[in-house]
């Protein structure tokens, strides 16, 4: 049996303690706080893979609904600004069906089933959860929106030259509608109420977005200005003119972007509130 001096043991203990402290600091450095963009990308990929499972039925229902509305309106609208409003509103309605209606149902069910507790335990910022889900649901609408716009232009004999503006209309209108849908789902006390609010929001997008604005009463036109998708519809409809005003189109897109930021901020606040309850 060997005898070790007490000074050596004390020195080793101090070294071990300092080693544990250094190791603890190292462990702390290995788990930094999650940043927004990587978390956003991870949530977006997860939600997009989930949405792909039901992508074909969603696209079929949303596109068939919008094309059917244009067929019905073809009997009462011949052309001109009214036809432009019908085609633009029906195209954005595809975005409203998925981003507003279905996202409200998704977050309502997620809250009722305790799914928010899972996200609350992850080192993911609340904004990443809302933005990732909103971006995934808005991305699913791209094929249906493009198909609806092309069919509508052929049906009402509108030019196809400026369909590229959909590259801005879809994400901006999708952000505005997704934020509103997520907020409705997170603020509703029951999933049934979230489904009802989503349906009402989509009905408002249908009635106020597809019908020509000049045929509505003044009160309804004021309510139309409060709908997030209105400015995306207006921007798209203006591009069908013979000489579209690019400045006015950019102004409408800018307003749509501002509404989108506000609605996503509202949804993020609603998520924080729902996650801590």
Summarize this structure as a short list of keywords or feature phrases:
single chain; mainly alpha; disordered N terminus; about 280 residues; elongated
Can you walk through the features of this model?
The protein has 277 residues and is an all-alpha fold. Helix content is 80%, strand content 0%. It has helices at residues 6-30, 36-53, 55-74, 81-112, 115-121, 126-140, 142-156, 166-187, 191-210, 218-225, 230-238, 246-275. The radius of gyration is 25 Å and the shape is elongated. Residues 1-31 have low confidence and may be disordered.
Question: What is the strand content?
Answer: under 5%
Coarse shape: elongated
Helical residue percent?
A: over 70%
- Report the mean per-residue pLDDT as an integer: 80
How many strands, which pairing sense, and closed or not: the largest β-sheet? none
| Individual helix count | 12
Q: List the helices and strands in order.
A: HHHHHHHHHHHH
How far apart the termini lie comes to: 61 Å
Low-confidence blocks of residues: 1-31
Q: Can you count the beta strands?
A: 0
Computed structural class: mainly alpha
The Cα radius of gyration reads 25 Å
